[in-house]
Design a protein that fits this description.
- The protein contains four helices and no strands.
- The longest helix is centred in the C-terminal third of the chain and has 46 residues, at 72-117.
- By secondary structure, it is mainly α.
- The chain has a domain at 11-70.
Length: 133
């Protein structure tokens, strides 16, 4: 005699066309993001289409990004803590910029003096081709 195989419950038995509320959607996505189940497993477990689940994940991530943009107070508070650190970083950068500007000025002066007094052409003329040596 043939033994009956135990069949898995079909997604149709789980009412796949019912609307899910926001909390249930967040719970399903949190379960996937925590790594306890995969997307396909969640689709089978909750009777969902994979594309629907991915759409929910995209929409939820966009919402969380827009929520983060709406809270500039937290950003400004974090910026206040970073200001002293940034000021400490700015001072050495300003000094190195001044040094670089001074170095450029010295080099340009050296080139100008060499061209005038020693008649050495150092600067490349525009449109000249490189030699094939």
């Amino acid at each position: 005699m043939q033994e009956k195989k135990k069949s898995r419950p079909s997604p149709l038995s789980r009412n796949p066309h019912t609307r899910r509320d926001e909390n249930e959607i967040r719970k399903i996505i949190a379960e996937i993001e925590s790594g306890s189940i995969g997307i396909r497993t969640a689709c089978f477990k909750y009777g969902l289409n994979r594309n629907t689940l991915k759409l929910w994940m995209t929409r939820l991530s966009i919402r969380t990004l827009s929520d983060n943009k709406k809270n500039p107070i937290t950003c400004s508070m974090a910026d206040e803590h970073k200001k002293p650190e940034l000021n400490c970083q700015i001072k050495p950068l300003k000094k190195s910029l001044e040094y670089a500007k001074l170095k450029i000025l010295v080099l340009e002066t050296m080139i100008k003096v060499a061209e005038e007094e020693l008649n050495i052409k150092i600067r490349k003329k525009n449109g000249t081709k490189q030699s094939k040596e």
